Each structure stands twice: as structure tokens, then as C-alpha cells.
């Protein structure tokens, strides 16, 4: 399974409906066909504890969470996910592909939620030793296409965060873009429009350097 090398950690990021879950599965298949052992996971979630926190976050009891409590819950879920799942898998040489990671907290809670990047990064340093993906793929789709995709899939049934205002989601998208521009080595921005296979082709192209290195 492993030649002793650490596995690579790849995250998909972007707003709701940009195709992260679809592309996570496609990338995992493509990596498996290149002989990698791959695990697919998601946030919030990925361990029993983090999945329980996911329920609290997306379907909150009572009035819902305040901004700080929400950020702490995401960080707590991530800490459990990193400690119990992601790090042990990477150390065994497994490649981990996740549907969202810390940059979601930086874009949603830090950006649109107004808590700022420093607070989110500090929580991540404390909870998860600041683990960063080897590569983050940011999927971008224009607002009009996204609302059509989500209406076709969800109708009126969005969760506590997906159901926030258009302004909130615009601020999320703007913050994602800013994070990617600030770290061109760590991020690749991929156009998420077109068929799932077309987007998958762009994803493979965007990470060709990483795949090339591995096959050398
Ligand atoms: N959140 C999460 C935070 O606020 N902070 C955090 O730190 C974290 C980790 C999670 C929520 O939590 C928030 C963000 C979210 O609001 P979720 O349900 O896990 O909620 O996540 P979403 O990211 O919203 O998941 P979605 O399933 O809505 O979006 P995806 O994964 O981007 O999209 P996907 O692949 O499921 O596709 C959506 C629909 O579009 C179709 C699919 O078939 C599906 O119906 N589709 C396409 N249609 C046309 N062309 C394509 N190329 C398509 N690709 C997919």
C-alpha cells in the first residue's frame, strides 16, 4: 500500500453547489486508477464525533449559534477529524481528499461572518496544529448557475448556513477568491461550469505538477 511516504492531502473548497462532492469522488477515482490508496472525507464531519457536531451546526437547536460558538464548533469538529482520521491516514501513506477544510471556516466564519482570519487561524493552530492541505482546489461557479443547481436539488430545503442571505454567500465567494490569490502555491482556482467530466478534466490539469511529481 505505501512505500513509506506520507500521503497527500487535497481539499476541495467553494460555495454551496459548486460541485465539490462530485469532484471529490471523481478525483478519488482518478487517483485510485493511478495506484494510490485514497480516502474521501468531508467537513464538517469525517468522524463520528465530528458528524454529531455537523448535525448541531446545520440543524441547530433553539435560536441557532452565535458567530463565535459556530466557529468553535467547526474548529472542534475539525480537531477531531484531523486527530482521529486525517493525520493517521496520511502517515500510513494514504491520500486524503476532503470536501471542505479550514479555508471554509476562513471564508464563512472569518470572512462573511466577520470574525476575521486571525481568529480562525488561531483556533486552527490550537485545535489541529495548523494542518494545511498540500493543495486546495477552489471551484468557482457564477451565482446564477449556482442558484439553478441548488433549486433543482434542494427546492426550499436548505440548512442553517446554506439558507443565509445572498450577500452572505457573495462575501464567502469573495473571501475564497482572496485567500486563493494570497497563496497561489497552495491553491488552484478551477472553473466549475460545464459538465462534471469537463470540470474533472480541469482539476486534473490544475494539479498536473503534483501528479507528475508523484509518478516520477
Ligand atoms: N461550513 C462548512 C462553514 O460555514 N464553515 C466550515 O468550516 C465548513 C467546513 C456544509 C455547510 O457548512 C458550511 C458550508 C456549508 O453551508 P454541506 O451540505 O456539507 O454543508 O456542503 P455544501 O458544500 O453546501 O455541499 P453541496 O452538496 O451543496 O455542494 P457541493 O458539494 O459543492 O456540490 P455537489 O457536488 O453536491 O453538487 C451540487 C448539485 O449540483 C449538481 C449535483 O448533481 C448536485 O445536484 N452538479 C452539477 N450540475 C451541473 N454541472 C456540474 N458540473 C455539476 N456538478 C455538480
Textual characterization of the structure:
The chain has 216 residues and is α/β, with parallel strands linked by helices. The mean pLDDT is 94. The protein is built from nine helices and five strands. It has helices spanning 20-33, 48-58, 67-91, 102-112, 117-128, 143-154, 166-182, 196-206, 208-215, and strands at 9-13, 38-42, 95-99, 135-140, 187-191. A five-stranded parallel sheet has the order 2-3-1-4-5, with helices on both faces.
Q: What is the alpha-carbon Rg in Å?
A: 17 Å
* H/E series: EHEHHEHHEHHEHH
What is the CATH first-level class name?
A: Alpha Beta
Q: Describe the global form.
A: globular
Individual helix count: 9
Distance between the termini: 17 Å
Q: Strand order, biggest sheet? A: 2-3-1-4-5
Percent in helix: 55-70%
Number of extended strands: 5
Strand pairing plus helix content: what structural class?
A: alpha/beta
Bound heterogens, unique: P1-(5'-adenosyl)P5-(5'-thymidyl)pentaphosphate
The stretches of 5 or more residues where confidence is low (pLDDT under 50) are none
Amino acid at each position: 500500500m505505501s512505500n513509506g511516504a506520507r500521503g497527500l492531502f487535497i481539499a476541495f473548497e467553494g460555495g454551496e453547489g459548486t460541485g465539490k462532492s462530485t469532484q471529490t469522488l471523481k478525483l478519488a477515482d482518478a487517483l485510485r486508477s493511478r495506484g494510490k490508496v485514497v480516502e474521501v472525507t468531508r467537513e464538517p464531519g469525517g468522524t463520528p464525533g465530528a458528524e454529531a457536531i455537523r448535525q448541531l451546526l446545520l440543524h441547530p437547536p433553539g435560536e441557532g449559534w452565535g458567530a463565535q460558538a459556530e466557529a468553535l464548533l467547526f474548529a472542534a469538529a475539525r480537531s477531531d477529524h484531523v486527530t482521529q482520521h486525517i493525520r493517521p491516514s496520511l502517515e500510513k501513506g494514504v491520500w486524503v481528499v476532503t470536501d471542505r477544510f479550514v479555508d471554509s471556516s476562513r471564508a464563512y466564519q472569518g470572512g462573511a461572518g466577520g470574525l476575521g482570519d486571525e481568529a480562525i487561524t488561531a483556533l486552527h493552530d490550537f485545535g489541529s496544529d495548523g494542518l494545511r492541505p498540500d493543495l486546495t482546489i477552489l471551484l468557482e461557479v457564477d451565482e446564477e448557475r449556482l442558484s439553478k443547481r441548488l433549486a433543482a436539488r434542494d427546492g426550499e430545503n436548505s440548512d442553517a448556513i446554506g439558507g443565509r442571505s445572498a450577500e452572505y454567500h457573495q462575501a464567502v465567494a469573495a473571501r475564497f477568491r482572496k485567500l486563493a490569490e494570497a497563496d497561489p502555491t497552495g491553491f488552484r482556482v478551477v472553473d466549475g461550469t460545464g459538465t462534471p467530466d469537463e470540470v474533472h478534466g480541469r482539476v486534473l490539469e490544475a494539479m498536473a505538477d503534483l501528479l507528475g511529481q508523484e509518478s516520477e
